[in-house]
Write a structure and sequence with these properties.
CATH architecture of the largest domain: 2-Layer Sandwich
Strand content: 15-25%
CATH topology of the largest domain: BirA Bifunctional Protein, domain 2
Number of domains: 2
Mean pLDDT: 94
CATH superfamily of the largest domain: Bira Bifunctional Protein, Domain 2
Number of helices: 12
Order of helices and strands: HHHHEHEHEHEEHEHEEEHEEEHEEEH
Largest sheet: 8 strands, mixed
CATH class of the largest domain: Alpha Beta
Length: about 425
Amino acid sequence: MLDLNFIRENRELVEKSAHEKGYKNAKDAISAALKADDVRKKILQDVEALRKERNDIAAKMKGGKPEPELIARGKELKEKIATEEEGLKEAEATIRENISGIPNIIFDDVPLGGEECSVEIKKWGENKSSGTDHLDYATSRGWLDFERGAKVAGAKFYYLKGDLALLENALLQFGLKKVREHGFTFMTVPDMVSSKVLTGTGFNPRTSDQSDEYYIEGEDLAMIATAEMPLTGYHMDEILDEKDLPLFYAGYSACFRKEAGTYGKYTRGLFRVHQFNKLEMYAFCLPEQSKEIHEKILGIEEEIWQEIGIPYHIINIAAGDLGAPAAKKYDLEYWSPVNQKYQELTSCSNCTDFQSRSVNCRVRRKDGSVEFVHTLNGTAISMARTLVAVLENYIEEDGRFKVPEALKPYLDNREYL
């Protein structure tokens, strides 16, 4: 979330940024939050005055028999303070409710407009002119079973079998080696998080029909959509030491998504499913480090896909396609020889202090001052979607699947699967 004082002092900027991101109700949320804050401040003044009077009465009642008028006034003050404190709680709840609907501000170099306005900043690799459909190919080889997945869990669940399951494991081992080389600490994470962490991560949909999480009935828990969620909460309510930053973590987890709001997007086979595995990079850093670290994470993503040998381009995501937490985001999209276009593969985002403020993660500077850290995240390898990209680009004309050179050490040095 944003700092309320920052919103008050930079209201026009916050409203403009929210508008560019497509959060239509943000202007009303800002008004409601600021109005509730005014109420909160007035109540605090009243409560302080009442408490001072109560303390004065308590002092007068010491050392002798209190006068009936003082006793009566003391009781009256106690009731008034209790009533005012209830009003204070209501005002604070209204502030929290509304401020959660206000997205992070965008950086100056973020393109304005919708998804179509995102700007290509780099291309790499040679784009193939034809390819083989991954779903038909993997199903025909007995590697992929959506039919039985649907039987046991519903549509868009699946089984990976044999060599395709081994290929996914090879991708994980390769990705893990790369991120560890760059100083990331490997972590396994909980597959569920509390509402506090979910909200703190900032996964606030623009509209109610875009909510993507699976919630556990009767529990304050939701299945995670990405390891970013539990990693955001890892240092919740902590004060880190400046000398320890930046901190780099790589979280591996299953990811669960309803894929709400994806009407019209490419969904064939493994490309968009309800459950998949992912290796996620995450960083906690000082505010002055975050822009440089954003480029570092992007560079690691590029290194991964160049070594695997998947053609791609990088786009600077337009404001209208940014989520609530991100001030800026890059997407790395692979070239699909089947569909003859670039398709989503990985992303990396700079969330500044938007998430850390929500989960109360701060840093103590060398001079003793305390401020909120910046957080960043980036996909190392999203397994299901990566399998699509690798199959499409490495199935040869004779129907054999050629193992990418970078993955051979994790597949018994096999040339083909």
